[in-house]
Write a structure and sequence with these properties.
Helix content is about 0%, strand content about 45%.
Length: about 140
């Protein structure tokens, strides 16, 4: 990630991959999330360290409303440069995005478009990327 809120462990990027789904509050365990500190060009990259095949990304936004905001659009970018733009909502449930199976070594979230509301605090509670190992025979 290129940003985290206030160097506070409850808002570290690693929280978005820790398997904890508490998203109805913020600022203390177990309500951890990736906070972007109101940075408009915030990005989060998941690097697998190898190629994988994937066809689905799930996003779970923090929803401590009305304190929180949310993103209405997110770009999902792959290591080959391909980008998929997805529309998102303020749901408290996972939002699932399916696409044709893709080989990639990383997934980056960027171009996070904040909702036009009064809160300056959108945050990501969890990202899940579904796929499988790429097996090569020699």
């Amino acid at each position: 990630a290129n940003v985290e809120t206030r160097n506070d462990v409850t808002f570290f990027a690693k929280n978005a991959i820790d398997g904890k789904f508490g998203n109805r509050s913020h600022g203390s365990y177990p309500f951890t999330s990736w906070g972007i500190n109101q940075q408009k060009d915030a990005t989060l990259t998941i690097d697998f360290g190898r190629s994988i095949q994937t066809d689905r990304v799930n996003l779970l936004f923090r929803g401590d409303y009305p304190h929180d905001s949310y993103w209405t659009e997110v770009s999902i970018c792959f290591s080959d440069g391909e980008t998929i733009k997805v529309a998102t909502t303020d749901t408290l449930e996972f939002q699932s995005f399916y696409f044709p199976e893709k080989m990639t070594s990383s997934v980056t979230l960027k171009n996070l478009k904040k909702a036009e509301d009064t809160s300056p605090f959108p945050a990501l509670t969890q990202i899940e990327i579904f796929g499988r190992e790429v097996i090569t025979c020699t």
